[in-house]
Amino acid sequence: MSLDLYLTLKPLKALLKLPALKQPCLEEFLGIKNRIYNNGKECIQLYKDFLKKRDVIMAEEILGHNLEDVLGLGRIFEMLSYLCIYDSEYEVTYAELDDENLILELTLPYKLPQKFSNGNEQFYLTGEKETIKFIIKTTDGKLKQYYANPKDYYYLPEEDTIIPKALGSGIDKKHRKAATKDTCYTWFTCSDIFLSDPLKQKQYLEHTLPYLLNTLK
Hints:
Layout lengths: L4 H4 L3 H4 L7 H8 L9 H14 L2 H21 L14 E8 L2 E7 L8 E4 L3 E6 L2 E7 L4 E5 L6 E4 L4 E4 H4 L8 E2 L6 E5 L2 H4 L2 H17 L3
Antiparallel strand pairs: 1-2, 2-5, 3-4, 4-5, 6-10, 7-8, 7-9
Helix pairs in contact: 3-5, 4-5
């Protein structure tokens, strides 16, 4: 069994505002500052020189750098906990409608190694320890629920909603368009029933959160 750690962590690049997914960038995010051997590129040339000279000091530098890489990699594994947000591994533990914003708090099964925050004009989220807090903008107390398979839907511009293609084939082509990832949604009211039901809240997040996270730059 193998794991491509950096490929697995790729969704976190935008979420955590990482400049790149190289080990030094991930270690910097985690607050790892006790490295002695920092330059991996120099280490490559150093190894080539060691093969020629067999110098003990060169060997110590190479082994020291490799040891720091291995230890740092162990810390980077902790970042897998952020993927709980993408994998729906959380429980909604609080919901409130504050003016035009829906506020949700999620409890994760794992502790996040570092706090973070991010967002845009549609939503804002923060994470610290085992808690994620979402603030999602509503429109007159209504929310868009997005769906992941736009190819299966028509978007109806006049009604600002989608309909399954199986049901929309009889609608005049002037009143329908192929849905895109940005128009593949329906509307629902953020009612007291919704605010009192964690299962409905999680269902909403399972549908909509992947779209929102993909809007982060």
